[in-house]
Amino acid sequence: MSVDVVTFGCRLNAFESEVIAREADNAGLTDTIVINSCAVTNEAVAQARQSIRRLKRERPSARIVVTGCAAQTQAQMFAGMAEVDRVVGNNDKMRGEAWRNARAAFDGGFGIEASEKIAVADIMAIREMAPHLLEGFQKGLPRVFVQVQNGCDHRCTFCIIPYGRGNSRSVPMGAVVDQVRALAVRGHAEIVLTGVDLTSYGADLPGAPKLGQLTKQILRHVPELKRLRISSIDSIEVDRDLLDVIADDERLMPHLHLSLQSGDDLVLKRMKRRHSRKDAVEFCAQVRRLRPDIALGADIIAGFPTETEEMFARSQGLVEECDLTFLHVFPYSPRPGTPAARMPQVNGKVIKDRAKRLRATGEAALQKRLASEVGSVRRVLIESPTQGRTEHFVPVAIAGEVPGEVRALAIAGHDGARLMV
């Protein structure tokens, strides 16, 4: 049996899991399960632990290796699990040497002590980011991800991710263009640029290019690329070049997901965010002027410490004011070691209630978007025999289409979750 990778969390982890699978397989590991973990919430860590126990019951002979953000920040905890054979650091997981070392440790015999299981380096010492060219990345999939950035230089009070990912670092533009070209030539119709703090791209590179310049270079030098999409961004960091591309190039998909987190200025200040409510509203209005049909989504946290009902109402109101379509709602979860964990906490039942209400607001916004699409003609990327996505990332129920093609389809209705043709 070969290496199986179980992925939790963000789209960046999905890309990195492909690298892990390749490097672990090249190292000669067999009958091995790798858990690529997430540390965003307590629930994500708990899910990883539950999966480890379940997988060990199902495959008692398999070696289990834990990596990812939770492994980086809570290495001792995972190493203390009897089911876990090794804990690999978040940067090391992308390197073949880490997996060759893992194989050597496994070949050395059984009975490894917990402290010997840990192969986790200081993530804050990492200053450069090597590109990982994956010629066979998710072969046959219409949409694939390309990692262009990792880490984060900001220290939002609720976030543990900088301690799992390290400081911001970027892949040089030429390497990104080469990766995108290779994937486009192989027939992947849509490329998604991804990173931890995507709009901080380039600050560590010579000349400090920005995300907008990278996007322009990709579209200019890879004419065979059909669709380019950008994953979650911080609106306050968006540069003029990126705004120009949003306005002028139809190959950049009209869909942005924004890291807003709250609609209340005091909460934003306590979160140590760098934008105000006014900044968020003005940015959304600006991109709508540039691309009137653009679809916007956002991450919003419900129940951040000290959040009152009035503060929450301002977050809820932001959905309509910014005309958001897709909402990712995160019930606040205190992460050990973060400043927010030491602030006065909101009652857990209140957090759950606010998250439920915020999700209902998001569902209403999605229904509004679905209804507005009826009667339009959209260019749909066929993802599977039963589903595609419009330019705006709205799901479409289909039948009889060939995955990988981009088809102009008339939207006849919707079923409350997907558009119908």
Main features:
421 residues, alpha/beta, 6-stranded mixed beta sheet, 5-stranded parallel beta sheet, 14 helices, 19 strands, 37% helix
Care to describe what's here?
With 421 residues, the chain is an alpha/beta fold. Helix content is 37%, strand content 19%. It is built from 14 helices and 19 strands. The chain has helices at residues 11-26, 42-58, 69-73, 75-79, 96-107, 114-117, 161-165, 173-185, 211-221, 240-248, 265-271, 277-290, 309-321, 348-373, and strands spanning 3-7, 32-37, 63-68, 86-88, 118-119, 143-147, 149-150, 169-170, 190-194, 227-230, 255-261, 295-302, 326-331, 377-382, 387-389, 395-397, 406-410, 413-414, 419-420. The strands form five sheets. Strands 17-14-15-16-19-18 form a six-stranded mixed sheet, with helices on one face. It has a five-stranded parallel sheet with strand order 1-2-3-4-5, sandwiched between helices. Strands 6-9-10 form a three-stranded parallel sheet. Helix 1 (11-26) links the parallel strand 1 and strand 2 (32-37). Helix 8 (173-185) crosses helix 9. The protein is globular and about 65 Å long.
List the helices and strands and how they pair.
Layout lengths: L2 E5 L3 H16 L5 E6 L4 H17 L4 E6 H5 L1 H5 L6 E3 L7 H12 L6 H4 E2 L23 E5 L1 E2 L10 H5 L3 E2 L2 H13 L4 E5 L16 H11 L5 E4 L9 H9 L6 E7 L3 H7 L5 H14 L4 E8 L6 H13 L4 E6 L16 H26 L3 E6 L4 E3 L5 E3 L8 E5 L2 E2 L4 E2 L1
Parallel strand pairs: 1-2, 2-3, 3-4, 4-5, 6-9, 9-10, 11-12, 12-13, 16-19
Antiparallel strand pairs: 7-8, 14-15, 14-17, 15-16, 18-19
Helix pairs in contact: 8-9, 9-10, 13-14
